[in-house]
Amino acid sequence: MKYLKDCPEPGMGTWYFEIDSDGVAYRQIVIQDDGTYIASNRKHEQYHFLLAEKAIDDTEPYYTKITKKEFEEVWSNNLRTFNKEWQQIKNALPVGTKVKGYIEAFFPHGTLIHIFQHNAVGLADTHSYAEKTPSEWMYPRHEVTAIVQGYDEQNQWVILEQTQVFKNQFTG
Length: 172
Prior knowledge:
Blueprint: E1 2-6, E2 14-19, E3 25-31, E4 37-39, E5 64-65, H1 68-80, H2 83-92, E6 98-107, E7 110-115, E8 120-124, H3 126-130, E9 143-152, E10 157-165
Parallel strand pairs: 8-10
Antiparallel strand pairs: 1-2, 1-5, 2-3, 3-4, 6-7, 6-9, 7-8, 9-10
C-alpha cells in the first residue's frame, strides 16, 4: 500500500489516502478546516461513504507521499472518537448473530451493508453472494440478511457471511 496527502485548495481541508499499486483507494479521510473528519469507513450525511471512485495517480504533483505511520495516526485519531459506540456494536452483535440490513455501497473491500437497529456498518464478501443473486438486486437499498462472522477493527466494520439479498419492496 501507498499513502498520500493532498491539500486541494483553501476551504477543502487536508485529504489522506491509502491506495494499492493500481491506485485503488482502500481508505480515505479528510480533516476539514474546522478540525472535523470525514472518513471512508462511516457514512457521512452529506458525502455518504467518501472513497475515490477512480484510480489515483500518485505521480501527480499535488499528492505528497507520506508514511504509513502518518496515515495511521490520522486514521486512528478518527477511530478513537467512535470507540465507545464500536464496543457497544460488538457487544450487541456477537459472532453468529443473524442481522438484517440493506446494501449501502460497493467498495474494493466488498459490499457495505447498513445493519438495521444498531446503526452499524457491515462488510460482506461480494463474490460470496453475487453468483446466486439476480443482477437487478445488486444495488443499494436492497435488503439483506447475514450472519456476523467477526470484526474489522481497522474500519470498525462488522464482517458478515452467508449474505442473502432480497427483492427490494420499494423498487420492485
